[in-house]
Design a protein that fits this description.
The two termini are about 15 Å apart. The chain has about 290 residues and is an alpha/beta fold. The longest helix has 18 residues. It contains twelve helices and ten strands. The protein has an eight-stranded parallel β-barrel with strand order 1-2-3-4-5-8-9-10, surrounded by nine helices. A two-stranded antiparallel ribbon has the order 6-7. The protein has a single domain, classed as Aldolase class I (TIM Barrel), CATH 3.20.20.70. It binds 1,3-dihydroxyacetonephosphate. 1,3-dihydroxyacetonephosphate binds next to strand 3, strand 10 and helix 10.
Amino acid sequence: MLVSAKEMLEKAKAGHYAVGQFNINNLEWTKAVLVTAQELNSPVILGVSEGAGKYMAGYKTVVGMVNGMMEELNITVPVALHLDHGSYEGCLACIEAGFSSVMFDGSHFAIDENIAKTKELVNLVNEKGLSIEAEVGSIGGEEDGVVGKGECADPKECKAIADLGVTMLAAGIGNIHGKYPDNWEGLSFETLDAVQQLTGDMPLVLHGGTGIPEDMIKRAINLGVAKINVNTECQLSFAEGTRKYIESGKDLEGKGFDPRKLLAPGYEAIIETVKEKMELFGSIGKA
Ligand code: 13P
């Protein structure tokens, strides 16, 4: 059964590790993440952007697939199904469809409007026992058409949003979705430290987990990050595995064109990436 992300993130914050949010795109992605979490006895969050939700034929399809898979594969570790960078309407649709967690990304609104909309959604999810992530200071780069500038959040605004009773808070600290450019200045630990000092026990979320050096990930966890989002890195691994299979002509040998064979190397590559991340984030054995 899907769970809210509240308990797993409170435990992670208290235990100084982070739970990975791995964005899913299709059945292979979902299965790769779920079986890995189960094998490593790790809690996990499945992230679904609005674009990925549409691609997978709608939120209800996603809920049906994930619930069915959890039952058939005997997945017993805590799993949250979470809308990533949701609009207000997207959050409502996911709550209705059966997601256990939503992110309302109001970072592009003026802070008063972000607060007002986040508050309405907090009241709604609380009634239903779901979890909610809010964002202050937009995350840089482009994800599914959502473009952010990569700002550093204002710690006082973070406190105002945290005080609304959100479950977790994403604060921009110079992080960017997708690959980091060569001239990237790194995470702003000064901002992160200031945010954590004002928000206390609130689990903080680090977006743009792809390509952040290991030492920065560990420092971020020490400063209160309890959830780390990874999307692009699994896409790169999947593409590389699939490319090698095709470039070596395996799809042309025997029944190598069978999608169950063709997609297998990419699937295995996602599993390897998820394992590496769970190890780095320290969530193995924490289910
Ligand atoms: P990356 O694509 O950089 O891994 O970021 C993922 C993310 O933050 C999803 O919200």
